[in-house]
Amino acid sequence: MKSLWNAAYVENRKLSRSPVLWGMLVFLLFVTGIRSGGADWNEHLGNMTFLFASVFGLMGFGTMTAWVFGREYADRTVKDLLALPVSRTAIVIAKGLVIIGWCLVATLTIFGFSLLLGLLLGVPGLSWSIVADQLGGLLLIAAFHLLLCSPVALLASISRGYLVPIAYAFTTLMVALTAGPTAFGAYLPWSIPALHLSMSDTAASAFPLGTASYAILILLFGIGAAGTVSWWKRADQR
Length: 238
Known about the structure:
Largest sheet: none
Transmembrane segments: 20-38, 50-69, 90-123, 135-156, 168-192, 212-232
Keywords: Membrane, Transmembrane, Transmembrane helix
Organism: Saccharibacillus endophyticus
Protein name: Bacitracin ABC transporter permease
Order of helices and strands: HHHHHHHHHH
């Protein structure tokens, strides 16, 4: 357990000092600012949540994941990392924990920024129940997109870099935007978060899509996570 936390500490220092993290956060805040405003707080915060469901999750979280796993190959530090007295599984888990932590920080930062903008713009109808409901929905959308990050980690490991996984994230975004509104949207993992959000306003259930949709997200995460751990266990044989 100590080696895991040590690995997570090192990975956190790598990411927290990376211009990729801060550049991505500034870009997401900029886009949030452009899309701010609305007739009331539900619309104002809903615009921000929609950005997460449709764009921020796939590209923002995907880019962060691609960098965390791909930089070891791009910077030629992977051999040094594999030589450490730390299990390969612990290294993958540590990277995953850091990604989850910083994605959560980015999500809460953007939510807080959106609240501040709403106050500055004088959006009417603010209540704690609206804030709580919107925050809960946003965190659930963020969790869905974190499940979609495991294939990105696997591609970054296989391709030994971050260009291929970033291209994958961009491609899945295009697929989600074009195929999401079709009948196949509920079975495409990348369009499920946006569909979940669009149906949440009119459905009584907290999970308005069919069970198969959420099972697809979990299955994709399992495949990506298992594949990434397996790849890293055999990385020095590649």
